[in-house]
Fold:
Amino acid sequence: MPYTYAYPRPALTVDCILFGYDEGDLKLLLVERGSEPFKGRWALPGGFVQRNETLGDAALRELAEETGVGKVYLEQLYTFGDLDRDPRGHTVSVAYFALVRPDGFTLQASTDAAAAKWFLLRKTPPLAFDHKKIVETAVERLKGKVRYQPIGFELLPKKFTLSQLQQLYEAVLETEIDKRNFRKKILSMSILKPLGEYEAGAANRPAQLYQFDRKKYDAATKSGFLFEL
Amino acid sequence: MPYTYAYPRPALTVDCILFGYDEGDLKLLLVERGSEPFKGRWALPGGFVQRNETLGDAALRELAEETGVGKVYLEQLYTFGDLDRDPRGHTVSVAYFALVRPDGFTLQASTDAAAAKWFLLRKTPPLAFDHKKIVETAVERLKGKVRYQPIGFELLPKKFTLSQLQQLYEAVLETEIDKRNFRKKILSMSILKPLGEYEAGAANRPAQLYQFDRKKYDAATKSGFLFEL
DNA sequence: ATAACTTAGTGTAAATAATACACGAACTAA
DNA sequence: TTAGTTCGTGTATTATTTACACTAAGTTAT
Structure:
């Protein structure tokens, strides 16, 4: 176990929880550790914050280095500082999270990571450090967030059906939602524009396509109005 | 300006936002800085995290050292990592906050702090570092928190009137609340026990006294039930 | 004594939001 | 033509939120 030399203050790292939504499934981006400690184990992408580097920048850099994923809007989750969370010694980690479309990125592992891979959230392997706890915290936060803030802008194709949007909410909240009530509510927010077009090639009645109306969304949120779901 | 010697990683500090509620007023605990930078300015109590010290422990230690305030339940707020927030160099700060009764503590400044004092929240002097931003973040968080979680257990005398409780909520939320609706709602939570006693010495109709029923509160929150106000 | 003042305490009606629930329409595949 | 699948729609019930005004019980001043 290297890195045990005396060091006057805690080390500072960032970790990224990247949730991926892909056709009904919630996924989690993990990397296989290429070095000790926990070599060979899966872990959240992350690493040490460099001097004169913003926390958000560090998170994006580590994410890009270890997984190839770039240009993501990360939100700060929580800072973990248990004394025994890293066997190398006292290490404080600031966690960031985001919800994205996996198919928008090509995974490429490097720098310390032997591999990068999406896992089904409910089928994640054992994780290194205290990353299990971090992921659980992130899941709770994601659910809470979704309840009062519409999501989906970046997670669905530009044109989508209401069923697709509902499926997304059901996946994140891990619950079933009544179809009619969901439509009533989401349409009453008037952030969706019905296109009059219909999906093609379905083996059943084709659904109407919708688009997000970013302007209306921004206007509503800026004026202090809060959505709820 | 000492402390400019090369240091491979960001320094790590904690800062405490202590809100005090005192008969209708929301206050903020500040310390006068005894050394550079910002010597003579008011700032949040806080300081460097020591090696093998939990973040929460560090926050409590700094709070006790600089203000004499001890045994407070601190909740993590956010971690601030802007590059220019400390003129000594890159310093990341984990902020903690709490809401307490000022009269429960005797202030005593020491260790780096020339003085410790409660200020009316809306009359705080200019602050050192990025502490203004930190306080604003804490105020928003406090308001959000109060909306779905009853407060007051530690902030009022053991026996209190409903008007006192309402005044507390109005102070925190910075808004007026309808008396009848407030009473209806707070009583429907059934976490208050009416005592049948009445306040003494008032120059008007005496109000009935109530007590918090901690057991019912814990039972309700543990069962996943959420209060709203 | 009584009038003036202050805060306590109470109920209802209206509006809004949340929930539960079932069937015909449109399309494809066999 | 039938079977199978998903789409799309409305209403009644219940719960929650909001708005709103007067009498009761004490003290103080005249």
